[in-house]
Amino acid sequence: MRARPWVAVSFLLPAFLLLGALVVYPIGYSIWRSFFDAAGDSFVGLANYVEIFSDPDNLTSVQNTLIWVVVAPSIATLLGLMFAVLTDRLRFATAFKLIIFMPMAISMLAVGIIFRLVYEQEPDRGVANAVWVGVHDTFAESSAWPGARPRPNAGLEEVKGGGFVTADAVGSADPTNLPLVGVPPQDVAQAATAGTAQPSGDEVTGTVWLDFTPGGGGEAGAIDPKEKALAGIAVEAVKDGEVVATATTGEDGTYALPAEAEGATLRLPAANFAEPYNGVDWLGPALVTPAIIGSYLWMWAGFAMVLIAAGLASVPREILEAARVDGASEWQVFRKVTVPLLAPVLGVVLVTLMINVMKIFDLVYIIAPSAVQSDASVLALQLYLVSFGGGANQGLGSAFAVLLLLLVLPVMVINIRRLRRENRR
């Protein structure tokens, strides 16, 4: 530099020009533009920054970004550490790591499309709800005929809490038939034809059936030849508010209650008609942000694992073996030896992911439905929406850009200081 400074300047000038055009000028212009209104004509001072922290949608994006910065890098680093340590001794460790790292080869756009399908509400389409509903239905019985209801003027009244009860007490002299409607014909296409119950001594009998004749015709309230039985419906006999007998309709829709049902009212519990369990609303307002973070972890846990595994490979095995010889358990070796030795690598992974999630955009934009996009919005997405997505307020968008810069700077400073410390060693 002292002998021929012009040579150094000549080599550095192209880099300086590029840096100025692509980094310094945009930052400077964004800061300047953030003090003006949407049109860029009137100076508004800090009004745009005030709007960020006063408008509910803008404030939600700030809060969600903080959640992302705290939760996503921490969990991704922890998963990467677990995968790296647990696969260290596996025979097929390389193949396992390849599978875990493979999502990194997929673009954010593709990951967003994949997980938009995974989180579909309908179990027939969404993988997450298909698994969730399958587990739920394993331990909880589904209703017999969801959506069914009594035919009007059939002598059945709806009770509080759901279900239906006969208006009058029943007896064993005549069958008590309970006609229902509201069941799609295709749902009973394979059902048996409704049977006609006969009086049976002291028992209370009857039939529960779909009071609908395909093609029309038939008599309301009467069991016609083509009408279908509703099997599996629970029938309860109630006296003085207590259930004294229960029965379930057979394949032909008939039921028989013991003598205790004489003089009781019959009740069809609400459980017979409850809508089937449809899973979790993953993309609803309450779970949309955790759901999107889950898709991010699926993609970036492999990145953390590869870096941590590389650091683990450089840890001297003699130190680990010495700790085991001294009587340390595997958990103690991991907690007091492995993790401290991996601390620099863990710091790199954590800081890198923190910077990465601050600019997260495409995952949120693609996965979150428009109805809840404001609930899942983050700073980078809100910047786009207010600037180009219909808001057309580039003053406010520039304020978001400056806020993002201010959030990234401390992390960058910490990273630079750490790198300098490592170089001194």
TrEMBL record:
Residue span(s) of domain ABC transmembrane type-1: 62-415
Signal sequence residues: none
Topology term for the membrane: Multi-pass membrane protein
Domain of life from the UniProt record: Bacteria
Pfam family, one: BPD_transp_1
Segments crossing the lipid bilayer: 7-27, 66-86, 98-119, 297-316, 337-355, 395-416
Predominant cellular place of this UniProt entry's protein: membrane
Protein family per UniProt: Belongs to the binding-protein-dependent transport system permease family.
Record-given protein name: Sugar ABC transporter permease
Source organism per UniProt: Streptomyces hazeniae
